[in-house]
């Protein structure tokens, strides 16, 4: 895809046509009674309403044309066939194999996935039944997952989302930040003899995770645990078995990972161990099944009805032709409150690139900033900017149609009403005339009503998708996450970038070593730094010295 391609030009012309005609999303509903039916799709149990987008059928056709121009169909098949689509690391991206879509040419992958699932299942069974005992012969009641990025966000998000499916005797906590405040606050009040640490790190080299794991081990020993019993309290998930063993983890307690699963795509692998421990193996399997259904949909559905394809193409439409810099994710479900953070990594690590697959500079914008939080809270903080701010920010509303149990139905109805009202308000806005009329009805003078109406008018015409889950169950959650994974892949294919590497993350890791040494007083390391860093370090050292001398 490049600026100047036929498809790109056609899309630019479509954007210009819509802008110049002044067509609004509301107009598109008025002119096409079939719009809702045609633009509402299903993926497994999830209903996806794409009708509130600033796009008509001609522009959508132009978007589908660039998908064909970029050979999206072939690219989808290449992923499922296990082609090395992660070209900078010469690897396939086989998260779909973890959900049962194993490339026929790789039967060994099927074997290793199924053996790992069995190992997870049998471990979960031992912990849940109480057969797995801590150093005082008591059952485990607390799991602490230590990981970061994909080794934290996926399991933490899914575990929070599946709160209603939690095992009654197990609580699962997550530690990620290298700030000792995080692990100290989690460890506070825990009973070491009933605590199991899952050290989740694909590489087993990540500084944050290893520092926290070491601190956890020291804490465990200080709380009465012994070296001899460490295997009862520390297990690992990693592709780096020697490093996990060197840390002191018994090889039987190392759950495998593979280089063909990216960190942000790894919750379906043994990185999901904490999800299964927090809930049950059956819940974890339903999660995988839900994702497998989204995979089947992505692989087999014609592009014009393919939900992740349409979501990805719409993201390209807004990023490149309407110049939207950010995209907001608004789950109207408190249990999905970690979804925006999870999607931040998924989308921004995958699409935050400025070169194409061959390393050529791209002449257009790629991944937008992804942000958001659970509704309705955002309505009382940042939604003001969504409604009246100067930028158009496309939104994803994610809602759960029904609440199980009867007690809280009315409150749930308030939640849904707010969700639907927000997407409608973004689309419809409020004209100056409507605001003026409201002011008059409130008893304001005509002069006051006019002055205030300028502030109360809301532009509207702001696009959104609504994704409706039947209930927040593991199957629907699996489908939802996989939909987003595939949406990201679609964007990467249109932009011709590699969605599966993250070289930009390396630079911070490389620079933190010398910075650590400089903070510790190493003169040579300090001299190699820029003026700002040197000054900040000096200030930190002086502050520490002053505090000591007090
Ligand atoms: O630093 C970024 C990253 O590499 C992510 O891609 C990954 O999910 C995270 O670090 C954790 O990596 P690991 O599982 O190897 O500790």
**What radius of gyration results from the CA coordinates?**
26 Å
Assign a percent range to the helix content. 40-55%
How many β-strand runs?
Answer: 11
Strand fraction equals 5-15%
Indicate the low-confidence ranges by residue numbers: none
Strand order of the largest sheet: 1-2-11-10-8-9
Say which molecules are bound, naming each kind only once. Answer: 6-O-phosphono-beta-D-fructofuranose
Structural category is alpha/beta
Mean pLDDT: 96
CA(first)-CA(last) distance? 63 Å
Oligomer: single chain
Largest sheet: 6 strands, mixed
Number of helices: 23
Question: Tell me, what's the shape?
Answer: globular
Structure, explained:
By secondary structure, the chain is of the alpha/beta class. It contains 23 helices and 11 strands. It has helices at 6-21, 25-31, 35-39, 57-69, 72-80, 107-129, 153-161, 180-187, 207-222, 230-233, 241-247, 273-278, 281-300, 307-321, 339-351, 383-388, 409-428, 432-441, 446-456, 474-495, 504-519, 523-527, 531-549, and strands at residues 40-43, 46-49, 142-146, 171-175, 195-200, 234-238, 254-256, 326-332, 369-372, 395-400, 464-469. The strands form 2 sheets. The chain has a 6-stranded mixed beta sheet, with helices on both faces. Strands 4-3-5-6-7 form a 5-stranded parallel beta sheet, sandwiched between helices. Strand 1 and strand 2 (46-49) form a beta hairpin. Helix 7 packs antiparallel against helix 15, helix 13 runs parallel beside helix 20 (474-495) and helix 15 (339-351) runs parallel beside helix 20 (474-495). The longest helix has 23 residues, at 107-129. It is globular and about 80 Å long. The chain starts with 5 loop residues before the first helix and ends with a helix. The model has no long low-confidence stretch (mean pLDDT 96). The chain binds 6-O-phosphono-beta-D-fructofuranose.
């Amino acid at each position: 895809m490049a600026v100047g391609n036929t498809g790109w030009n056609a899309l630019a012309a479509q954007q210009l046509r819509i802008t110049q005609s002044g067509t609004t999303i509301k107009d598109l509903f008025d002119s096409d009674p079939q719009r809702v039916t045609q633009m509402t799709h299903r993926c497994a149990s999830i209903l996806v309403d794409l009708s509130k987008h600033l796009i008509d059928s001609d522009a959508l056709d132009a978007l589908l044309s660039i998908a064909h121009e970029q050979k999206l169909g072939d690219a989808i098949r290449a992923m499922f066939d296990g082609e090395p689509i992660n070209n900078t690391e010469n690897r396939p991206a086989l998260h779909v194999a973890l959900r049962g879509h194993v490339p026929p040419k790789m039967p060994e992958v099927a074997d290793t996935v199924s053996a790992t699932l069995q190992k997870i299942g049998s471990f979960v069974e031992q912990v849940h039944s109480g057969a797995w005992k801590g150093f005082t012969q008591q059952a485990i009641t607390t799991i602490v997952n230590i990981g970061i990025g994909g080794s934290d966000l996926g399991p933490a998000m899914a575990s929070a989302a599946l709160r209603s499916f939690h095992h009654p005797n197990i609580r699962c906590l997550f530690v990620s930040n290298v700030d000792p405040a995080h692990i100290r606050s989690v460890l506070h009040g825990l009973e070491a003899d009933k605590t199991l640490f899952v050290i989740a790190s694909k590489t087993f080299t990540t500084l944050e995770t290893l520092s926290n794991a070491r601190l956890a081990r020291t804490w465990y020993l200080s709380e009465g645990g012994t070296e001899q019993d460490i295997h009862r309290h520390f297990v690992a998930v990693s592709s780096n078995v020697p490093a996990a063993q060197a840390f002191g983890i018994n090889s039987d307690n190392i759950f495998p990972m593979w280089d063909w699963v990216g960190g942000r795509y790894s919750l379906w692998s043994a990185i999901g161990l904490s999800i299964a421990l927090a809930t049950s193996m059956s819940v974890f399997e339903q999660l995988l099944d839900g994702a497998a259904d989204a995979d089947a949909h992505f692989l087999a559905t014609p592009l014009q009805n393919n939900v992740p394809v349409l979501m990805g193409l719409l993201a390209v439409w807004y990023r490149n032709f309407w110049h939207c810099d950010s995209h907001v994710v608004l789950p109207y479900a408190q249990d999905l409150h970690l979804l925006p953070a999870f999607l931040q990594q998924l989308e921004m690590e995958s699409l935050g690139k400025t070169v194409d697959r061959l390393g050529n500079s791209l002449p257009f914008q790629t991944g937008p900033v992804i942000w958001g939080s659970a509704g309705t809270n955002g309505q009382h903080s940042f939604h003001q900017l969504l409604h009246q701010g100067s930028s158009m920010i496309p939104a994803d509303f994610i809602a759960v149609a029904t609440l199980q149990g009867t007690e809280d139905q009315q409150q749930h109805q308030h939640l849904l009403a707010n969700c639907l009202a927000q997407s409608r308000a973004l689309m419809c806005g409020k004209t100056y005339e409507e605001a003026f009329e409201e002011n008059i009805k409130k008893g304001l003078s005509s002069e006051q009503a006019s002055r205030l109406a300028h502030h109360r008018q809301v532009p509207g015409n702001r696009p959104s998708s609504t994704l409706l889950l039947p209930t927040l169950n593991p199957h629907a959650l699996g489908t939802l996450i996989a939909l987003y994974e595939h949406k990201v892949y679609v964007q990467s294919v249109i932009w011709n970038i590699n969605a599966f590497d993250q070289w930009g993350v390396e630079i911070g890791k490389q620079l933190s070593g010398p910075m650590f040494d400089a903070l510790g007083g190493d003169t040579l390391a300090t001299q190699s730094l820029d003026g700002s860093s040197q000054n900040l370090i000096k200030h930190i050292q002086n502050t520490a010295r002053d505090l000591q001398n007090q």
